[in-house]
Every structure is written in C-alpha cells, then in structure tokens.
Design brief:
Elements: E1 2-3, H1 9-17, E2 22-25, H2 32-35, H3 59-79, H4 81-91, H5 97-102, E3 106-109, E4 125-127
Parallel strand pairs: 1-2, 2-3, 3-4
C-alpha cells in the first residue's frame, strides 16, 4: 500500500489486511519520520523544525530545541488522537502512533538530503529528491 502518513487511514488499512506499506512524504510532523524507523536524531545536534537554529547551536539554543521537541509530542498526540481511536477500533487492540508507523516497509522521503542537516538514515529510508523540478524552456 502506497500511502501518505499524515492521515493514518493507509497505515490502518495495511495493518488490518497485513500488507506491507510504503510511506511517500515530504516530512512528518514532530519528526516522527526519523523516530519511527528508529533513526538517530539527537536533539543537541539536529535542529527541530521552526526553531530557526543551525546545526551549530549554543547551549541555550540546544535547550530551546529540546523544549520544542517536548511540545511537538504534545501537539502530535492531540493531532492524531481521533486517528488512533479509529485505528484501535478497526484493529481491535490499543494502538499507539509509533505502532502504526514502525511497521512501514519503506519510507520514500521526498526531499534532497543535500538541503537537510546531516543525520544518519536507516536502510529502509530512500531519498527521492528533485521530483518537483521543472525543466527550463
């Protein structure tokens, strides 16, 4: 199943039918596209989205980065609350957000790694950058 993880319908359906699924996305809120496949993303080196920090942070910027990461967890739990209730009803078991995301076969990340901060990626994460480029006339 090729799905976008913003709406958890595809992941729920794939888990229900016991099918492998592939995520195709630009990015995931709360940096779950690095947490779910268990990719290292240390807060002291990788700036969070909307922090406007670079990868060379001062101590206070690192603290700010950690606080943003904590707030993102609260935001994500609230944002996906209804989707997780629906998934729990369909799958007839308690489901967490990471349970749905962990079992993805391949993560097709739709951005160029040269524009992102350096971080390790897992073998099932594939960068497919440049797909939105238009050739010059």
């Amino acid at each position: 199943v090729l799905t976008d993880p913003i709406l958890m319908c595809g992941a729920t359906l794939a888990n229900y039918l016991s099918l492998p699924y592939v995520f195709f996305m630009r990015g995931f809120p709360c940096s779950l596209h690095y947490e779910a496949p268990q990719c290292p993303s240390p807060l002291s080196y990788i700036p969070r989205l909307f922090s406007f920090n670079s990868d060379h942070m001062t101590f206070l910027q690192r603290v700010e980065n950690a606080l943003i990461a904590l707030l993102e967890l609260v935001y994500c739990n609230y944002y996906y609350e209804d989707a997780l209730k629906l998934s729990s009803e369909v799958l007839q078991r308690d489901v967490s957000l990471l349970d749905l995301l962990n079992s993805a076969s391949i993560w097709l990340l739709r951005f160029d790694f040269v524009f992102e901060y350096v971080r390790p990626v897992m073998p099932n994460m594939v960068f497919v950058g440049g797909i939105n480029c238009v050739q010059k006339k």
